[in-house]
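Form 12-C: Joint structure prediction
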Amino acid sequence: MQTVRNDTYNFETPVLCQSCAARHQGICGALNPEQLLELTKSTRRVRKQAGEELMADAMPISSYANVLRGVIKLSKVLEDGRQQVVGLQFAPDLLGRPFAAESRVTAEAASEVDLCIIPKPALESLLTQSAALEHRVMMQALRELDEARDWMVTLGRKSAAEKVASFLYLIATHIDPTDREPETSFDLPLSRADIGDFLGLTIETVSRQMSKLKADGVVEIVNYRHVSVPDLARLRLRCG
Amino acid sequence: MQTVRNDTYNFETPVLCQSCAARHQGICGALNPEQLLELTKSTRRVRKQAGEELMADAMPISSYANVLRGVIKLSKVLEDGRQQVVGLQFAPDLLGRPFAAESRVTAEAASEVDLCIIPKPALESLLTQSAALEHRVMMQALRELDEARDWMVTLGRKSAAEKVASFLYLIATHIDPTDREPETSFDLPLSRADIGDFLGLTIETVSRQMSKLKADGVVEIVNYRHVSVPDLARLRLRCG
DNA sequence: CGTGGCGTTGAGAAGGATCAACTTACGTGG
DNA sequence: CCACGTAAGTTGATCCTTCTCAACGCCACG
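Section 2 - Result
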């Protein structure tokens, strides 16, 4: 039998975490087995159906969550009901604004999702202990900021056709977190209405532009929710 | 004579920092006098004129900078020249994306600005030493993310009239970093062209909406670059 | 007294929104 | 298994907001 070594490998990776999407790429990658084991005492896995609300704008946050599978839709609404989707989160992102008392967005499961719920105090105490963890969380925030700014260009300066192409390109390159290569055939995680709210367009305009891309042979619409992109470079050209 | 105490107050706040806008509110607020003194060995103050480029998109970053006075414009351009302003930075923000090898945006002085230039290695070594500093930087990134998402709603879902009102409201509430109260009379840090690029509108549309707000008595246009808002609540109502 | 940069105003064109009809997919219950 | 109902998506016609193009005003500067 191997002697017990006095280092971080005293502890083994918890069984639940061994096959977890967030174990290495997500924030848990910054934790050693000991910390991970401690954290798992207060976490729990849940499955949410598409459409379920996970967090409401201006409501207190009681927990964070690692996205393990599926897509989360982040949105904001104006008083009169106009809605804007301000971001999508894919595995292995952390859901929830760190250190904020209340949410600044509404979070909703866009597809069926698996989450690893982490109580707010559990994560926050770990954050103050581990600079490596806080660093990971900061790097995610910075990446989200870059993505938000990229999308501002799409919202402010692109035509409807370019917007829809940009959306399809985004999904093709983000839908599978395990795969480094973009997908050529995938399910859309959003309805036409949500796509419109993401792009600042109406459902009708989204639909027309999708039909146009199909007519031009840039995408195939297998099913309303499933598209296939034979040549990603050609789609990229349509993004403006 | 007081005995020297073995704590952080062994060191005095550097003279240059004593009257600095970033000393308490900005990232330097996370540093003790010792760290601050060490940092000032490699920093230098510079003044930049409106229009000077501080950082180019996709170019290597050699330094960060604290904004001490004035407004920085962050923008992105598409290949064909279409431009989008993706954010404004006011004192005492930190300019420059932490830990990134190259910039993801173009940064330009919108007004005359004073900066405290910090070499990249100097800040980054401090960041790895001080969890408190990294925490501040993360909090700024999270605030910027919130602001970017708020602006996405403006870009995606508001009318031209609401966009221009939102811009004026943003400036009124951000232009003076020392003042808790919004300003009722202020200089616009952006030209009409830049305002258009911030709002995803043309110069002409910005101009027409400004004239309309003036005709409706919501704002007074003292000078092209100086406006006065007698009733901020009325302006707020126009923001949608 | 030009000249050029910046801003405003007007007329016409165009892109996307709105309103409305129709299609497709899918679940439910007879 | 099919009739029905409903939700989601598509397509067409028309309207309206914003863009485009053009002329003009203001002001600083040589």
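Section 3 - Comments
Residues 159-160, 201-202, 204-205, 208, 223-224 of chain A lie near DNA strand C (CB under 10 Å from a C1'). The helical segments of chain A are 15-18, 33-40, 120-129, 131-157, 160-174, 192-199, 203-215, 232-237.
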